[in-house]
Write a structure and sequence with these properties.
The chain has about 60 residues and is mainly α. The chain is about 55% helix and about 5% strand. Bound molecules: zinc ion. Zinc ion binds next to loops.
């Protein structure tokens, strides 16, 4: 019995018992969007993470 609606695709889905506040269904595109949103909020709330990501990006750019 579905009682939540995915915020990305609008499809009804049943959240896992372990994750009652789940907002995204299990579709790969929606899970990708969920990670992107998580990363965005992480970047805004965690300066250390932002710094790490920036360094990783720079290191990667220098390799290519
Ligand atoms: Zn979805």
């Amino acid at each position: 019995m579905a009682n939540k609606v995915c915020v990305t695709c609008g499809a009804p889905f049943q959240p896992r018992p372990q994750v009652p506040h789940q907002s995204y269904c299990a579709a790969p595109d929606c899970q990708r969007e969920r990670r992107r949103q998580w990363q965005r909020s992480k970047l805004q709330s965690d300066p250390d993470y932002q710094d790490n990501q920036m360094r990783a990006q720079q290191a990667w750019t220098q390799l290519t």
